Amino acid sequence: MERKYFLKSLLAGVASAPALLAACSKEDTVTPTTSTTTTGTGTTSGSCTVAPTETEGPFPTHSPSSYVRADITDGKAGYKLTATLTVTNSNNGCAALAGVLVDIWHCDTEGNYSEYGGSGMQSVNYTAVHFLRGRQTTDAKGQVVFTSIFPGWYTGRATHIHVHVYTASGTSLKITQIAFPEGTGTALAAVNGYAKGLTGYTTNKNDNVFSDDTAGVELATVTGSTSAGFQLAFTLAVPA
Amino acid sequence: MFAATYQEFCLQGQYFNQQRHRSLAELLEHVPGAAQLPFLVSGAVRGYLQQLGGWVPGIVDNLGQSCLRFSQFEFELLASDVLDQAQHRLAISFYSEPLVWHDTVGPYLLVSDPAAAGPAGAFTTRLFQLQPYLAIHSLQVLP
């Protein structure tokens, strides 16, 4: 090859590189949106919208996330808990907020979450791997209802349920936790920590998440009994 | 499944991404607890796995029939980026139920399901070939 042709082909190679790089960083498939929400404890930011539809591959039916379900028990033993969460909009006179996604997750009676991974090769049975985790969309009343079990507890934390609220398109609106009333006559006392009792239990006042919630904003209303099951009601306002 | 896991990454990643990191690698390096993100994202594939009816996809025996049952899987989120779906990479490994290996016939393994022994010591067997992306991950010598 003559030198000038070699240089020409080399230049052509160089010229094509930016095109390839541009394809790798193509962002037109996702439209990022960013919002910043100020909460009591810091700043929360989100930056995603729904991914585009792609070919379905070998699977015949589009399947929603396995989190989308009302009963999140997955066969876990424990006293039945029906949790009704109401989401309101603090930017709209605390009106019911319909059509937002609500994720909840909590631990089992022994204080364990459904988690695996993070430690190398580890396989898991697919039928019950995400126990006690669920996602629903709020109805016209701003409500979602989950069927679960009364959570257990673990060292260092009061009994709690995690909540993450997203807009319909998936932008984070609020990450918070639900606390349980304590003391004589409460559901917490009736359940009595399941098999391990309440020795060494961290109360809400000593909990590093709930201790600053003196107004009880994060405290749910819990009624019922161990035989009939418990009903939890919780309302949270989010800026939407 | 690719799109579903990316959407789940974008959703659940926000729980860990208070500092506006872009990539999964950044999240894993800087955010304590982000290591559970692959597990959380795997929730998006479980419905698809159920559609497989308990059979490892893409692996057929000499008769062209699915031959490996599974209930165990491993989900790996290799890379992702909240602003660029093209960076999203995932891997799913299926772990078959145990098989009894009887012999190797030409390029084929002659195997049977230990839970489905036939009458009077007969075995219902299958012939299948080792192939790319298929490996033996555990071995037990029978007495």
Write the layout of secondary structure elements.
The complex is a heterodimer of chains A (240) and B (143).
Chain A: H1 3-24, E1 35-38, E2 43-46, E3 80-89, E4 95-96, E5 101-105, E6 124-125, E7 133-137, E8 143-149, E9 160-166, E10 172-179, H2 187-191, E11 221-225, E12 229-238
Parallel strand pairs in A: 3-12
Antiparallel strand pairs in A: 1-2, 3-4, 3-8, 5-7, 5-9, 9-10, 11-12
Chain B: H1 2-16, H2 24-30, H3 37-41, H4 46-51, E1 70-79, E2 89-96, E3 100-105, E4 108-117, E5 123-129
Antiparallel strand pairs in B: 1-2, 3-4, 4-5
What can you see in these coordinates?
The complex is a heterodimer of chains A (240) and B (143). Mean pLDDT of chain A is 79; it is low at 1-45 and 117-121. In chain A, strand 11 (221-225) and strand 12 form a beta hairpin. Chain A has 240 residues and is mainly beta. Helix content of chain A is 11%, strand content 29%. In chain A, strands 3, 4, 8, 11 and 12 form a 5-stranded mixed sheet that branches. In chain A, strands 7-5-9-10 form a 4-stranded antiparallel sheet, with no helix packed on it. Chain A has a two-stranded antiparallel ribbon with strand order 1-2. Chain B has 143 residues and is α+β, with helices and mostly antiparallel strands. In chain B, the strands form 2 sheets. Chain B has a 3-stranded antiparallel sheet with strand order 3-4-5, with no helix packed on it. Chain B is elongated. The mean pLDDT of chain B is 91. Classes of the chains: A mainly beta (240), B alpha+beta (143). Chains A and B meet through strand 2 and strand 6 of A and helix 1, helix 4 and strand 1 of B. Strand 6 (124-125) of chain A pairs antiparallel with strand 1 of chain B, so a sheet runs across the interface.
